[in-house]
Specification:
With about 375 residues, this protein is of the alpha+beta class. The protein has 3 domains: about 110 residues, Helix Hairpins (Orthogonal Bundle), CATH 1.10.287; about 90 residues, Urease metallochaperone UreE, N-terminal domain (HSP40/DNAj peptide-binding domain, Sandwich), CATH 2.60.260.20; about 90 residues, Urease metallochaperone UreE, N-terminal domain (HSP40/DNAj peptide-binding domain). Helix content is about 25%, strand content about 25%. The protein is built from 12 helices and 15 strands. The strands form 6 sheets. Strands 10-11-15-14 form a 4-stranded mixed beta sheet. A hairpin with a 2-residue loop joins strand 10 and strand 11.
Length: about 375
């Protein structure tokens, strides 16, 4: 709570008691209202949860004689709305924003909030914890090479945190209620001063940012208010995903707390190798065997493609072993809808066994070829 909250909130009205009510009357009123608005009695009712928090907050202040006295004195001094000195506004007065009075606007220091720092325990510069975002969830899946190219919808079984079903997320044993954290006054944040110059705001260590503390914890979640849930979700993996790629799906993680947004789901993708095709960026790769006569004389060969019809590739005469040909548009599907290319590398196959006719033909070729010593350049350059 900020200092302005202390002035604007009427805790007596929240509990439905008079300003001179006794401690016992306050306690009795709190118990009645807490039972009516407890999350166990109103599962999934966000308004009831807010009423429960407001009732608990009011009880924390009014049940403590010292804090009640400070609260009464402050409201008596400054009223319960805006501070209105005489001026030129409507009715002869000008209404000042309590944010100006307490120095709570962005970048503003000082103000009455600093003067009342002892009364409010430095709460003037605290910010409300508000709703809590759900945790991120990580899982993994394995696809075939073809599925990674075309995209696929896969079922993923995930285990994540959610509200504890035994206590409906309150963290307190059934029949009991959590209390407003006395350290952060329910904001879930605490401020510490570094050397008296810088102020560091961080989640309250006493309540771990929840704004509530549990005296009698739920035996199922041990007071955390969180439980483990398992669910199966159908997830679409886009075309062109790579092996080892991490896909982020916004809002598909663990549900938030107190109305906060859900976390994200991260899917680690593993792609099994293909017996023929490989991948290089947005291009597919393929090694094609070539006979000696096809490499020497040239040829037209048929080449398979992934998920499409075969294509004809023209091999020019004198093609060396290891030469790569580019077949455009037969590669990986890109995000913009275009495709990469298919890079086809030829590999000249040398026969391991020759029959008599083949051997005679090769020997005749050897005798007919007059290409000189093809290794002469090696010795010449080695000598340099």
């Amino acid at each position: 709570m900020s200092n302005a909250d202390w002035l604007q909130k009427d805790f007596y009205k929240v509990l439905g008691v008079s300003k001179d009510a006794s401690t016992e009357e306050i306690k009795k009123a709190y118990r009645k209202l807490a039972r009516e608005s407890h999350p166990d009695s109103n599962p999934g009712d966000a308004k009831a949860e807010e009423r429960f928090k407001a009732v608990s907050e009011a009880h924390q202040v009014l049940s403590d004689p010292k804090r009640r006295k400070e609260y009464d004195q402050t409201r008596s001094m400054f009223g319960s709305g805006g501070f209105q000195p005489r001026g030129t506004g409507r009715g002869g007065t000008t209404t000042f924003d309590l944010g100006d009075l307490f120095g709570s606007r962005t970048g503003q220091e000082g103000g009455l909030g600093d003067l009342l720092g002892d009364i409010f325990g430095g709460a003037g510069r605290r910010t409300s914890a508000g709703a809590r975002r759900g945790a991120d969830v990580e899982t993994e899946t394995t696809l075939s090479f073809d599925q990674s190219m075309t995209g696929v919808t896969v079922p993923l079984r995930m285990t994540s945190e959610g509200a504890c079903p035994a206590c409906s997320g309150t963290g307190a044993r059934s029949g009991t209620v959590p209390k407003v954290c006395p350290t952060c006054q329910g904001t879930g944040m605490q401020t510490s001063s570094e050397g008296g110059v810088f102020a560091l705001t961080e989640p309250c260590r006493a309540c771990r940012g929840r704004g509530l503390v549990v005296e009698d914890p739920c035996p199922a979640c041990h007071g955390s208010g969180r439980g483990t849930s398992t669910k199966t979700m159908q997830v679409r993996i886009p075309a062109g995903v790579k092996d080892g790629q991490r896909i982020r799906l916004r809002g598909k993680g663990a549900p938030g707390e107190g109305g906060g947004p859900a976390g994200d789901l991260y899917v680690q993708v593993h792609v099994r190798a293909h017996p023929l095709f490989g991948r290089s960026g947005d291009n597919l790769t393929l090694t094609v065997p070539l006979t000696f006569d096809e490499a020497a004389l040239g040829a037209e060969i048929t080449v398979p493609t992934l998920g499409g019809p075969a294509v004809t590739l023209r091999i020019p005469a004198g093609t060396p072993n290891g030469r790569t040909f580019r077949i455009r548009g037969r590669g990986v599907r890109r995000k913009d809808g275009t495709n990469g290319d298919l890079l086809t590398t030829v590999e000249v196959v040398v026969p391991t066994k020759l029959n008599d006719e083949e051997r005679s033909a090769v020997e005749a070729l050897r005798g007919a070829v007059d290409g000189g010593d093809v290794r002469a350049r090696l010795f010449a350059e080695a000598g340099d």
